[in-house]
Amino acid sequence: MSQDEPGIDLETSLGYLLKEASSALRTHMEAVLRPLGMTVTHYSCLELLAQRAGLSNSDLARGAFVTRQSMNVLLQSLERDGLVTRPEQAPSGRALPVELTPKGRRQLAAASAAVKGVEDRMISTLSPDERGAFGDMLSRSVAALRGCDS
Prior knowledge:
The protein is about 60% helix and about 5% strand. The chain is mainly alpha-helical. It has a two-stranded antiparallel sheet with strand order 1-2. It has 6 helices and 2 strands; from the N terminus they run ααααββαα.
């Protein structure tokens, strides 16, 4: 593509490179989670609950980048499998806070180790300084797109 032509050069487009990286990351995460009986969304839900206990269905859906309906189906499955608990009635309002069970924490520990291996592989060619800068640049880019000042 010449410089005079409008459009995006996929070889240098940051958006395209990010999408390609996201797709590769998801593919490798699914591959290590599948033997554990998990998907990326399943893992994300458990990880969010471990780090932010008591999140509602809506909060979890936003954090895992899925619809509330999809998250509700997943939570029903996780509850049936004994990985999470939800109260019968909301302590206040309508939101039912979700909590990890000990079984859920054990499953998460195995999944987190597997996902960390994928992430370590992804950044294996970066120096320690580059790793920090990479994370910082991604965080600032997300904040810029969300209209935040950071």
